[in-house]
Structures
1.
Amino acid sequence: MPSTAALLSQAFNGLALGSLLALVASGLTIILGTLGVLNFAHGALFAVGAYTAFVMMQATHSFVLALLGGSAVMLIVGFAMERLVIRHFYARPDEDQILVTYGIGIVLVEGLRAYFGGNSQRVPVPSWGVGATKLGFMIYPTYRLQLIGIVAALLVGLYLVLYRTSVGLVVRAGIENAGMVGILGIDVRRTFLFVFAVGIVAVGLAGMLYAPVVAVTPDMGASFMVQSFVVIVLGGLGSFPGAVIGGLIAGEIISLTSAFDSAYSEVMLYGLMALVLVARPQGLFGTEGRV
Amino acid sequence: MSLLEVEGIDALYGDSHVLFDVSLRVEQNEVVALLGRNGAGKTTTLRTLMGVLKPRTGAIRLAGLPIHGLPPARIARAGMQLVPEERAVFGGLTVEENLRVARLTAGKPWPLDRIWEVFPRLKERRASRGRTLSGGEQQMLSIARALIRDPTLLLLDEPFEGLAPLIVLDLVALTRRLAAEGRTIVIVEQNVSAVLDLADRVYGFNNGHIVYEGQAADLRANPAPMRGFMGLAA
Amino acid sequence: MRRLDPRAHLVELALLAVLAVAPVLLPPLGFSHDLLSRALNWALFGLGLDILFGLAGLLSFGQAAFYGMGGFVAAYLLVSGTIQSVWLALLVGTVSAGVLGLAVGWLAVRRIGIYFAMITLAFGQMAYFIENGPLSDYTGGENGIAGVPVPVLGFGTYAVRITAGLPMYALLAAAFFLGFVLARRIARSPVGLILRAVKENTGRVAMLGHDVPAYKLAAFAIAALYAGLAGAMLGPFQSYMPPDAFALETSGQLVVQTIVGGVGTLVGPLVGAALWLWLRDNLQLIPGFGPLWKLVLGLAFIGLVMGLRRGICGEILHRWRVRRDAAALRMARARTAAIEAAGGTPATPATPVAAEVALAIPRPAIDGRAAEAEIALEAQGLARHYGGLKAVDGVSFRVRRGSIHAVIGPNGAGKSTLFKMLSDEVAPSAGAVLLFGSPLTGSGVSRAAQRGVAKSNQLNQLFLGLSVQENLRVAALSRSRGRFRLDLLRPADGRPEVEAQVAAMLTVLDLTERADTPASVLAYGEKRRLEIGMALATSPNVLLLDEPLAGMSLSERAATCALIRRIGRSCTVVLVEHDLDAVFGLAERITVLSEGRLLADGPSEAVRRDPAVQKAYLGAVQADAAETRESTHEPA
């Protein structure tokens, strides 16, 4: 049995991982919900985000500027992807959408590998995040605490956009019935473009924020993507609150299990997913609408 | 110039609903009913007018402006508004949010208060989610969502289907009021008695063809021509 | 023993020839023996995916789990010394993968599209982490298992070790060839036909009486067996079992190769794998281009999915078929256009018709007390509520055996919902349906069909990509074979009673000349007839027809009414129809619904004169008008 301190520290790790997963999965889930497209390039875009942070850090030496510049880059990537490829796939079968986004994922990952090489890159922890913070009951790396705070702020921001703006209103209506939104005079294609780009910025930001914590490699997003699939299955496809709660649950399961035996951490996660699929296939927050 | 002119449209929908060379016109301030059996092409006609389906051939003009081939959003902004058969209320949005979505791109939207005046029931339920509404309330919301955009041409697809008789009476009264205010309406409805009371003019559909055109008053007096397109044992 | 007709096996013979000359002709082009061997291993792996995705339409991103399972089980058994014989280890590895496939498939096949892809991907990852974590003592974790022995053919002094190079190529080629022959048989078996139908319209296959989840699970397990065998051969082939057999990239590479080569062609996986490996090996030799090979491949893949989505072999095959069938298709289309222009099929059947519809396959027997039952179908207090909406609210009525019974009512009266409960497509909120006195409700739509309840739908639910006779065959097979049967090696058209049934139905429906026409090309009236014919081809005791006349022309209506009357001579028929003339002409008894409740139920003539029915159905204006006119002249 691990000590209380070790469990607490793992619980915080779970919170950090879980909030990142929540951010990755919310991008995935609003794209899936609104556009009906499951984005298999999501993991690659996570890595693109991390590399953008790496380049921007080298150019500006400011993590804040790197985040801002990186978001702009991700926005452009998202626009380009939607305009050039995804748009032509709205009316095609699910399988085609999966295949083409998987292909984009390969191109992005291999593009990163061709340009930056296969070796890992390091992004320094921002100056304001170096060191550890005493929390009274334990000591925890400062940047990871800040990471939790930043991601929470981003998720609140996303929540406000979705639930407090008219664009968000259109997106939520579009998740339920994109055709009817068009009949009510709203250009659904512009909404789709916006949603796709926001989803890509979300996953890109997750990659940027994660970059100082790990080694940056072209393949770094793969496991995040599969885990975020588990998250949206747990939370219910297309559900933003489901993605957030599901992300936190997934993060805690992975971290707390590894406090006992790290070999089982991911196994537990997929085991839970199997359980949810059998007992409640629409997920924890999904309704029988769009599946 | 008629408000709506449809010239020789052909349309495909899946493999079962087909329109052949459908031509019709709707004058300003007129209520026109499309009658016919299930699958005769009435709903397909409305969906084609709204741009949900693209006509293969033919022309559609709204107030002289060609609209065939445009996406539904553009046609809606040109002033046409479809209330679809399946109502398509956004179930996760509240009543008020449903109405706010509809207002977004309207040129001269109604203030919410005017909707509440017409639909006091919806005002009571303004904060309820769409999926919690009864069938009649959903139909009201679906019509309200169209009205708030102040459309020049309102397309109603089976607005009374599956509703209790008292609610149908309410909705008939509402539609009559809208017609009296001078709103132009195209209505598809199986409830023949209700619709003949409302309409000025009738088109009869059979197998995707228009097989009858006449005044509603004539049909009320002598329903015999309806045999050809309704299959009723009149 | 049957004589082998070489023409019937042209494809197999051609493949054999290609496999024989490849190691001689291809090496100068950059295909080494090793490369060809690896391609064959991937191709064997891909055959399973081709059956799963190409035939059944299920896109799996978790095939690596079964590849790795087969591989590591075999490698562990050999290296640990548990099993000496490589052949036996291959068998055990393959079977283990099949068992895993059954377990994962049991969860996965309940879902389609996005969900299916995600579930298989997640289970693939789960297998990877189990292999690398809890089981790493057995699998060597990240090191894999080294020193896997090669197979030995023969005994004692005659023993031949199948070493790397040509011998291993020959072994892998033999395995692929056998796998290919088997896969081709499966694709042409009743199971293959049913899977193709599932891909087109899952719901209809179940309505016809086939156990859809079981067939999908079978396809999943077959794919897992192929993966397991390929994985098991990997260790002996490379004398090393790599841990990345379990990796996500393996599943992904398999999908890409199969799509590039052409899904649904069975040779596609081989062409795709050869191309992938050739590009990797040869592009890496070009200076400065090495790291780019996968980027190039990814771009090509995107282009392929956007444009030529059939893949290389699929595109070739498609063009060849289009040329071969062009004339026939043009004629079929012309005929359809002529029918549509004439406003439907002429009502004059080419041949005089028998009074009864003769079926080649017997209807299900009605045993015991039920044999005497006067009532074929009984609804007891059926209700169905959707949220607050009561679509059907406590409806009871009885359908006499051998009668034609109609259910009518205004739109929204609940007729379609009632019908779906009669065939057990929709579970009632309350009440039950009895078939010849025993409960039907709760058995599910495919079991209901097996018990003799067939339904044709208001909106056509045909298998549009299949020919007319294949549509009918899918239906007839369900009565002949039952809900589920794994007759993988038998040809789909190899059951005489099924073929007789199909031929009889083609005559009855007046579609004999259209037997080989794809259902998508038919005229609307013909599609409508086929829709009814598919239900009838299951040899039902009770036939439910949901608006059989919808959208038909007048002449087609008359012909269809005559057909229904003929069917009614030997089968209980229940129909929902808006055309009241037709209903009063056909039905002996009529049940009237209004707003989900029973309004009237009785003999046709009594219901017709019931003022409540007139009012509810025709509306007040109509009823008044009808009364005033009734006195002046009788309706025709």
Note: Chain B has two domains: 4-79+152-230, 86-147.
2.
Amino acid sequence: MRIRTAALTLAALLALALPVLAQTKVPGVTDTEVVLGITTPLSGPAAAWGTTALGAEAWTKYVNAQGGVNGRKLRVMMRDDGYNPGRAVANVNELKDQVFALVELLGSAVLNANKDNIAEAKLPTIWPYGNPQIFAKQPREKVRGVFMVYPDYGDEGEFLVGQARKLEKAKKVGAFFQNDDYGKGGLEGVRRGAAKFGVTLAAEVAYEVADRELGTHALKLKESGADAIVIYSTATHGAGLIKEMAKVGYRPKIFASFPLGDRFVMFRLLGELWEGAYYNVTGAVPGEPEADRVIEIIVKQDPKLKGRESFALAGVAGMVATVEGLKRAGRNLTRDNFIEAMETIKDWSPEGLTGKITWGPNRRHGLNPIRMMRAGKAAGAAFTTVTGYQPFPSHF
Amino acid sequence: MDLVESYAQDLRFARKSFTRALLGLVLLAVVAFPWVAPDYMVFIATLVALYSIGVMGQNILIGYTGQISFGQAGFLAIGAFAFGHLRIWGAPFLLALVGAGTVAALAGILVGFPSLRLKGPYLAIATLGFGVAVYQIFVNWEVLSGGRSGLAIAKLKPMLGLSPVRYEYYVYVLLLAGFTLATYNLVSSYVGRAFVAIRDADIAAEVNGVNLTRYKLLSFAISSFYTGVHGALYAQVLGHIEPQIFNILESITLFVAVIIGGVASIEGSILGALFVILVPKVFSNFREMVPVVYGVTILLVLIFEPLGLFGRWLKTRLYFQLWPFR
């Protein structure tokens, strides 16, 4: 008797687990809506970056308020992966048959763990954040669905050294870098730049993400006598280093990679110590008309984004690109014609938030976007624009 | 009556026919699962299977032998990278798996030496240091970790016409079954009893003829073997590894799984793995609240189920056995 009850219970449970039968031929597309999937770190060590996804979602609400795309409303299925590649793979597996496309995968480890997965599922993957070299090394047919806009760390490192030479006549530079894919990629570029521009690379100082005490790093850099420091770190570590250097009376010129590009964060952490620093950004920043217009729109859709505008803006750009592809693909939407539509995007900028993007049949790295800014007075978080978008090569 | 009259009877896996029937049902469900559940659930079940092996290994060390360890991430990384290199050199899957476990076990013996003198929180700190040291070594020694871009590992080639997800699931579940059986046998053998004796009172154990050096090191070696295999299976499932994956959070996750599932319990290990995989997944719609929900759930289980999830199962079983009396 008990066995039968158990068997019946089990059968009922199994029935509950049965997949909902697909109602349409194209995953994630019905007459009235298009479902877009996002897996992102909403918790864990990289939770701050998950704001990109919230910005992207806010933009879909705005698009829906305007009537949607080709008669369909957009819906976002968002999953938290905590920056953990295993959880991200589980999320992508869950989403791949329920969503039309994946928007904004985040993190090098996450991209590496999913790169074959998305290729096998033929899942369009728009605007992934991570090292472009991951996809550049993939065979061509495996990146068919990938449309990327992201800086190459090496190109940027070379550029930073060149600018230090040109703008501040630096003869000796020091590199402060995170001991991982990102930091070492930047360091390679810095080495190339030093050789190319005839600058001495006086010190290479690595730190770990878990490090909190940066006094010894600052002393090493001071001893090297470098007159400019190139920084490949997180915002908090960069700020920590600059503080420690100031404590020992060492104030070299600062040339920082794009993760230190949020001037509000940097001024909050450093105050006047950030004044005069050169730093890169990848898109429009608050204070520029294009950015301010979009910020107003998304904060109206999701008031929680107030105070986190910089990451949200970066996320909006990816969603605008996705929407553009959906528009161009027309009412009769399939993953194939969406990919073809994305390939027609040429010299186009998402609401002016980035430089001109060009994707094409043989070009998936649509923009390698870097431009340089300089921090002004701390009061009012002032800045000046040093260069426009750099003509770096597309890598795949 | 449930009277055990011989050692052979004691070793029997399932004594009563009802237990056997229940076990059969569970096996049936496990076999049928990938045919009725969507692919992503099968993948999650695969993750649970591989985590279960690691948690079981930790339970041998923490639960049965009473040696607190926080070095799991280190053993995971050693297992994963050993497996990665062996696969790249052309070793077949199973051989690479055994190799990964063996390398991790050797590392376990190395770490086990301080355990001969250290106890409780001191041992926890020493093993924690090991985990951090391994991480540093992999980050800085690029020959081992595959450099900036990490190691890519070829996916398993499905056989018997199964889809890759189902094939991986069956392989992993079979491995879990193998490890479960091995663990049952281990804990009911004289080795397992020596472990338990050390946990309960190491001086008394030594007086009774248990060689502390040998059995403490053995416990470290066996548990590290399991954890190494866990790391290898994780690497295989991800298809790509880099040192950042094996950070301190992984150590804590495994530790939580042991405590939540039930200390010194094999079934509890599987329940613990289910918990640490499923809770973040089920609540992933809570978005930024996930860690809070996760933490609160852990607290609730610890407050109301001090014996872990397996303790709840024991109480439920007892209730039905005694029914209608209480």
Note: Chain A touches chain B through 48 residues (CB under 8 Å).
